[in-house]
Structures are given as C-alpha cells and as structure tokens.
Amino acid sequence: MFLSGRGIGQLRRMSIKAALIDLSGTLHVEDEPTPNAVEALARLRDAGVTVKFVTNTTKDSKGTLHERLCRIGFELDRSEIYSSLSAAVAFVHNGKLNPYYLLSEDARQDFPPEDPNRCQDSVVVGLAPKAFNYEQMNKAFNVLLQNKEHKLVAIHQGKYYKRSDGLALGPGCFVKGLEYAAGCTAELIGKPNPYFFKGALDGLDPSSCVMIGDDANDDIGGAMAMGLQGILVKTGKYLPDVVLSPPPTALVENFADAVDWILKKNQA
C-alpha cells in the first residue's frame, strides 16, 4: 500500500539510518563508477549510515559482482550485496524446486545443482542473452506445459538495462512470452516485489531507510510502497518521461548528490 501524503511528509522529516543502494546504473555503469561515487560511498559510511547493495542484476553471480565493484574502487564486503539472485536462490531452496534454468553460466553458480533423478518442476529466468534462443525457450515452455503446478520464476522482468553503448533489452519480454505461450503467471522475485525488499531490509525499520536507484518503478516505486524513502538518480536507465506517483522523495543528478542529500537531511 502506498503511503498517504501525510505519511510521506513524516518520512521526509525522519533521519536516515540505512541506505539500500542499486548497483548498475546508479553506482556504476559496466566498469565505470558514476561521477564521484567511490568517494561518496566512503562519506556515507563515515557518517554512520548502514549500507546494503541491492540489485536486480541476474547476469552475474554475487562473487562476480563483488570482484567487479572492488576492482573499480569501491570498498564493500560480499555480505553487503543482496541481489534478486540471492532472493531467487532462497525461493528455490525453500520450495524444494528442481528448475530448468535460463541463466548465464556465472549466475548459475549461485543456485543448487539440478537433480537428474527428479523431473524438472519449474523454470527460473534471469538475464541470459545466450539462453534466449528457440531451443532453450522451447524447452522451458515444455517444462511449464507438463503440469499446471509447475512454476515460472522470474528473477526479475525488467524491460531494459543500461550498458556503455546504451539501453539493452532485459529479460521481461522473454518472461512475458513464456507466460503467454504456457498460459501461466510468473512468480516475480526481484524489485519491485515486496518479497525482495523484505529480504533486503532483513529486519530494518523501513521508515528509517532510503532506496537510491535509477529505475523509477522497480527501485523507487517498489521501495516507497514498502515505507522507505526513495531517491531517484538521473544516471543509468533514468528516463525523464517516466512519471512516478507518488513522486520520489528526492530527484538528484547522481549517486554522489544522493549522498549529499542524505547527509544534509541528517544534519538538519
């Protein structure tokens, strides 16, 4: 449920104790940090704000994400990363599923191995350009057709994401194609699903937390619906004609400006 105008006003006056920070498009674009992001993250930590890195990235394993961020200058612990892959791994484990995976080889490392002694009972879809071909999509389609109880698990269904050469197609259209063909509805794991944000918060009070991201709907809309404040940055996949209602708590140029906004707010 979205908060009322009065509720949002109260959030604007509260100090911020923790920040959920999107990765691709917000903290970095491929192997380049966004302007002054490395120094800004250090300032945020020095101010005593707890940080957690939350991402819908499904192409890279947690280990690969951690290695990349450290290599381009950020200081963080692997345990501070909470991805939609993390949430999907927990979903597969808790449901005792034996999926057919449409994932990149790297992302596949985070998941349990397939059990050859059991029938495949689900399909897990992430960003996997090499897997989005007719043969593998048809295999996924047939797994779903075998039993109406078989689950289609969408780690996320983003329309697009930001690369150094511009916007690129996300996994959303492939998820929708499987839904259409198999006559099913996907279980959505990543942002903006409440399932994702509850796992990311891990007991933190949403009213004292902020989400910083470049996606108005998945990052900011999803977080604000859970009671967090939301800072939308104009980097990455940000598009000015995407209007969010209610509007973000703040709209800033980049991650460094988002940190400035938090620090000024906490000093007020």
TrEMBL record:
Highest taxon in the source lineage: Eukaryota
Main localization of the protein described in the UniProt heading: cytoplasm
Gene3D superfamilies in UniProt: HAD superfamily/HAD-like (3.40.50.1000)
An example Gene Ontology CC term for this record: cytoplasm
Reaction catalysed by this enzyme: diphosphate + H2O = 2 phosphate + H(+)
E.C. number: 3.6.1.1
Cofactor(s) the protein needs: Mg(2+)
One term of GO molecular function: inorganic diphosphate phosphatase activity
Compartment(s): Cytoplasm; Nucleus
Transmembrane domains' residue ranges: none
Function: Phosphatase that hydrolyzes imidodiphosphate, 3-phosphohistidine and 6-phospholysine. Has broad substrate specificity and can also hydrolyze inorganic diphosphate, but with lower efficiency.
Assigned protein family: Belongs to the HAD-like hydrolase superfamily.
NCBIfam families: HAD-SF-IIA, HAD-SF-IIA-hyp3
PANTHER family: 4-NITROPHENYLPHOSPHATASE-RELATED, HALOACID DEHALOGENASE-LIKE HYDROLASE DOMAIN-CONTAINING PROTEIN 2
Name this protein carries in UniProt: Haloacid dehalogenase-like hydrolase domain-containing protein 2
Gene from which this protein is expressed: LOC4818134
